[in-house]
Amino acid sequence: METELSIIAALLTTLSPQHFDDAETKKWLGETVPHLADRVLGEVVDPSRHTLLRRASQCFHRRKSFSYWYLIFTVLMLYYIIEHPCSPRYRHLLLPSSDLGLITPQLAEADALLPLVGIDRPAKKILGWFAHQGKMDMNLRVLCIIGPVGIGKTTLAVELRNRLREHHETGGGRYNFQCNVMAQVPRGTDRNIRLVQDILSQVSEPAATALSSDPSQAKTMEVLVRLISECLRDKRYFVIIDDIWEASDWEEIKVAFPNNNHGSRILITTRSTSTAWACCSDSYDGLDVHEMKPLSEMDSERLLIAKAVGSVDGCLPNNMKLHCDEVLRRCEGIPLFIIGMADWLKDQRLQQLHQREDEDEEHQRFAIYCKERVPRLTEQALSSAFNDFPNDYLRLLLIYMSMFPYGYKFEKDRLIWKWIDEGFFILTGYNYGLYYFDIYFSHVIKLEAERLFSELVDSNVITCVASNCKHKQDEAEACQWQINHFMHQFLASKSAEMGFVFTTTTLNLLAESAAATTTECGNQTSSRMPRRLALYHPDPLFPSMLETMDLSQTRSLSVSGTVCRIPLNKFVNLVLLDLEGWENLKDEDLVQVCRSKMIFLRYLSVRNTRVSKLPHEIKELRILGTLDVSYTQITELPLEVFELIFLWHLDLRGTRISQLPKQIKGLRHVLRYLLVETAARVPNDVRHLYKLETLATVDLTEYPASFLRALGDLHNLEVLAVTWSFHQSTDRDYCEALLSSIKNWENLESLTIHCGLGCSMEFLGSLEKSRAPRWLKKFKVTAGRFASVPPWALP
Asked: Is position 623 within any domain?
């Protein structure tokens, strides 16, 4: 492998730029480099391999040909592939642990003893669904309860079952079910077989016993569902199926439940919104989904006290009341988290009976507990939830969330850009090297990233927290997202255990084990070098700690808050550098970063810092893909920025930049996202950025109609936001120019027009529906006047 790399480096040094346009050379490169990537993947990587890759790539900096850079990117991708978290070297770390796949007896016992706080109203509501309202309401109905782990779905289902039994014993009439079954979906590849076996044993114990005692009888899914169906054929039955994860599981077992017109009911609990709606899609009387809500502040406090003291009407000591507000804030109304923290309060109460403790020490111990520990009960449930994710990529992307500080609110698009620039999608069904370069900026990868983000939202581990966020707000809307405190703690612990991310809290664990640089994991050897670091709390030990670590293999670094004295020049192999919100970042630090020649750096963010100038040396960041300087003091961009021929995303919002130079057309082959404030004037040369997919927000009031017409040349635009004045709405040339451009934006998915007060936008109605963008999903006009919505904007 070393010989092949050396040969490639030597050959590239002697070739001229014209050779890279030669068909024979391209064919050779297309065959050799991917083959070399396979070889690298099969090797056990050590630091010398990284040194070799860097040495081989140094000679690439002398050339300027686009084809030459095409090859540079390919060779640099070898480094990404070596360290890819889903490569064979790391895949075993993402597999579920065998001892965490099932709900433990402790969890089941705790759930049974859970005080019934805040559950009466939803129980009464769902009981109304169960009751049949006469002959017209006798069809089989499927009802779903959805919500995140620990919110009380199973508790509610058990309470409903108990109430139905009480009605049955007292001659409940409408609530009288001849068969009452509850089964939890097991984990594992044969989960559906085991599930229907459990249901059969409750529906008809003799049938289950006869089946198990007859060795000649095949225990197939077809046989089991047929037996269940036969037993339920003439009965009014009620079945609870607890914790279904995938809709495909329901599709396989639903044939076991006949629609016998006896008013039967099926209740399903799930964490997945899409699974809930899929399960209810066959309900004969419509869609019935109940979404669990967090407990109110009053109910949360009652549950906390009931679990900590033993009675809902109990009372905590005065000094412990100080902790309640903080506990309830972190638990966010999730019963499981409240119960876990209540255990701690109970221990403190017992300790106070034996000893007095200084109040400051007590507060300090409480702060440490909240920041560094996840209660045992909570950790078991979150481990199960984590292992339930259907593939490695979802677990990987979820663990990546530990890079954020607690309470951090993030935007969907910014997270997706990080995923892409980290190289998380290199191995998602595509080949490496040249093939990856061909699709790197394609719509396919972004769609894949958005799909996985939607799955995380769908599973209720990511929730919308924007103040203006409405119930079930569309992900495309501008809003922020967040992860629950205890889930964040669990992910930080899990990622440190894997060696995937070390945060401020878990970095000390790495320092303690620095002497043991490797640990055995099965047949694999996992390096304990800090691959990803997220530093967001100051610690006087950081500088000395980092000095003793080998940071040459760190691929991602995030720094924020008041952290100080970070040796940025030691992180030479970074792929992602996120300095958003770092209060101590100075202009000189950026110069240091650029002069360090971080040849693998794809993502650089100095968002929301005091930086006032980008250095000319930024051209040394050869393959930089994302540059985010939003909400800084920067007043202009150095022309060297437009020499970065892999720059696909540029965010200039909230800066003092008043004019973009015409040299921006140097990015015409790569720039996909250009985000500016309306105060920043965009040159006419922006029409040459033919790869541009997002342009926001351009103030059209300062441009002639010819500029607006020229924007129609941006045929790849998917998202556009502009401002529009009252004068323009009355000027025929401007109106015709806008209509002409809309006709040319065939791929447009989102169009936002911020109008001046009183602008009449009636002219947009003259556009023929056949000429309008066929993929348009969002059309937004602020402050403009319409007598009716333009027909072409309707579905």
From this structure: no
Residue 327 belongs to what domain range?
297-378
Q: What element of type H or E holds 434?
A: helix 434-439
Task: Tally the domains of the chain.
Answer: 3
Which whole-number Å values give the CA distances from 333 to 363, 373, 462, 545, in the listed order? Answer: 22, 19, 15, 38
8 A C-beta contact, residue 127 and residue 274:
no
The owner of tokens 């809290």 is 505
Cα(310)–Cα(681) distance, rounded to whole angstroms?
66
Co-location of 53 and 161 in the same domain: no
| DSSP 3-state percent helix, strand, coil across the chain (nearest 5) | 50, 10, 40
List beta partners, residue 238: 180, 265
pLDDT of residue 522: 40
The answer to the question of residue 333 being in a domain is yes
The predicted structure's pLDDT at residue 299: 87
Q: How many residues does the chain have?
A: 795
Residue type, 398: L
pLDDT at 140: 86
Assess whether 49 and 192 both reside in one domain. Answer: no
Q: How many CB atoms lie within 10 A of CB 287?
A: 13
Residue 674 clears pLDDT 80, i.e. is over it: yes
Tokens, residue 583: 């209060």
pLDDT exceeds cutoff 60 at 517: no
> Which residue, 349, 378, 407, sits at the end of a domain?
378
Surface-to-core class of residue 711, CB atoms within 10 Å of its CB (0-12 exposed, 13-18 middle, 19+ buried): buried
Give the integer Cα–Cα distance in Å for 335 and 423.
38
* Radius of gyration for the alpha carbons in the chain, expressed in angstroms and rounded: 30
What are residue 676's phi and psi, to 5 degrees? -135, 165
The answer to whether the CB of 739 falls within 8 A of the CB of 763 is yes
Going by their DSSP bridges, the two strands 289-291 and 576-578 should be labelled as unpaired
- Specify whether 233 is located in the same domain as 137: yes
**What span, in angstroms and rounded, lies between the C-alpha atoms of 155 and 163?**
12
Edge-to-edge strands, sheet with 502-503: 502-503, 532-535, 556-559, 576-578, 603-605, 626-628, 649-651, 673-675, 694-699, 719-724, 750-755, 778-782
> In which residue are the tokens 């289950």 written?
208
pLDDT digits (tens, 9 = 90+) for 66-95: 444 555 555 555 555 555 555 544 555 555
Of the listed ranges 109-118, 320-329, 387-396, 419-428, the least confidently predicted one is 109-118
User: Cα–Cα distance between 68 and 614 in angstroms, integer?
Assistant: 27
Q: Would the pLDDT of 217 be above 80?
A: no
